[in-house]
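[Q] Does anyone have a clean structure-token version of this?
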Amino acid sequence: MAKASSDTRSLRINTTFVESPADGKLPASAAYAYSAGGRLLASAEVDAKSGHANLQLPTSSEPTGVRVLVGPALPRGEEPDLEELLRRGAVERHLRVEPRGELSALEFEIFPDIWHCWLLGLCVVKGTVLKRIVRDGIPVDFPVCHATVDIYEVDPFYLILPKLPPLVIDRLREVITGRIPPIPEPLPDPFPEPVPPIPPIPEPDPPPFRTFAAKTSAQRSASTHRVDAEAIEALHAASGTGALRFAAISGSDLAFRQALIEHAVLIRPILCWLFPRFVTMQRIRTVTTDDCGHFRALIFKGCHNHDQPDLYFKVRQRIFGFFDVVIYAPTPIACHTWWNYTCGSEVTLHVTHPLAITCRPCPPIIAGDNWVLFMAIGNHPLSLIHGTGQSLIPATTATNRGLTSGLAPWGGTLRPRLEFDNALRESLGVKYYRLSWKRNAEADSDYKPLVGDIARHYAHMVGTDLVLDAYPLGPNTVGGNGGLFEIPPAVPPLGQWSLPDVVADTASGIFNSPAGDGTPLLDGKIQIRVELFDNAGAAVNIAAKGIRYFVPTSTDLSGTVHTVDASVPGLNLVVGNTMVITLHINNEACNAGIAAPSIGGATADPCCGVLEYGPGDTVTMPWTASHPHGYATYGFGVVRGTQGVFSSSGAVAGGSFSATRTVYQLMNDNLPPGCAEGGCTVAGFSENLHVYAMATDGWSRQSQYDDGDVRAFVLAPTA
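[A] Here you go.
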């Protein structure tokens, strides 16, 4: 027996693994000692060859009880937790410890069903935490770095079900037999706003619980990790037949509960929507996201749970350096649990909390060596702009050059976005870039530099606090050249790059297009030029240094970005040592007007808005929706009381529009429940017109240039 110090005594643990394999492949194990109150007293690894371990127990002045466990060894740095060890299948012995005398060795026999669980019960959980930001309907994902992810195991359904009271069981019978109707879907909007003219960038792949294409309702429900409206639909489609319905109608309470366990996939949606409070969980692991928002953890599935783990996630982040904020903890828990999680599969957690701090995206850029990538204007990639998108070359003309693929112009404050190969700074001595602009008809000598302040933020730890600091990039004057911006270094002075403001922290320059150079840019094409400068501020010869300019071919900037050389035929964007792109700017306002409705030659009374009608009459409703250069769409609708009875939308084209509807149609279309057809002889109407400017800054449509009009009238029979 090992010699103990004066204030501790040694307890020898002898462990035997029954039916241990000949190759000696056994799980790493350890011995743990806890006080009767659950406080950890000592721990020691069990020798893999001899099965021995020595625990140094503190001495006490009176008899006490000690709980001794042999269980799987925990990952380095993980604090032993009594409840977690028992969940992992640790074998426990209770020991009475006297104040004096030696402690007899404890013998542990670990049977195969237990040590096999220690060996095979590990599960890798990995995922990414992203903050989804939506600008004008366009979703953009940025990684949430240095956040704490708490992983919880939700009790499996066969443990939850016995906890449900009889009242809930009876309620489940009613749902399955159809006595409680399905949960109603939201009613569609009878008068929706026209779709914005800017084509959305494709969303990233949806989470696994939304992969429902080409599947039956039952298959869709069976494949879900989390619960959503389609899982609810699958429940109602599948619960009406088979053994589950039979058990609900005729089975005893015990038989029905067993049927529910066998159809757990179908029952989870009901728990989600009707009985969420009956779900319980236990935290089993805590990890931290890296610079790209990724996390990875090794969990133990538990020896008492033979099902796949059911996992729930919370995310916390230290904000402003002094307090923790829970930035992701969706409820109800049952609706956001990853049921039957497949070990090693990817979990994507989308955070929407306004205080969540993001980092720079981590997509790999495929562009070879020594590249400069003109990525986007705002969040609109150059691949979706006529003149800079390779796939748009066949459709590009002198007229649409500089417009988006949806033929929208640019307006407001534009923020060009560039990315640079680290080798430019680190190996080639190229430290600065300059962005400048000119009107299409101006000479090259008229290029004017963009001079708005540009900075990058970085997050770093000060003690236990996460702190944000700014790294200014410019503008600078170096070697007699002004308007120069520093190419961001690969890593900041401390910590990692962060994006507290994704608009500002991804911008490489700022161009206030309404102000221009003092003369407003209302409509016309401009050129934006990129130049490179070395450490001393001298212009760079790109051919001598092997530098090439690129534009993206990818339309999704949240994944791997594929590129093409900007000098290829059809693009021809490289001019000498510079790269030049064309944008079509438009900062003009829309115009909306509704003229008086009429029947025959008579118009609605301008004082009271009354329009008299006779049998079989038709109402003409004219309106004007225009834009000086046609860069707008419109939406027009007529509402009777609270119901929409007519709508029209589309491009403004020539600007003059008119619609005709019979009085009968206006009086009877889309009647609300309880209203009899032909019941109205007098009714009030509202005409609503909105004209939407198509101009975009790459993040959002420039709605400040919109216009609208409203007009009311009453239809009444001729006296």
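[Q] Thanks! Anything notable?
[A] The chain is about 15% helix and 40% strand.
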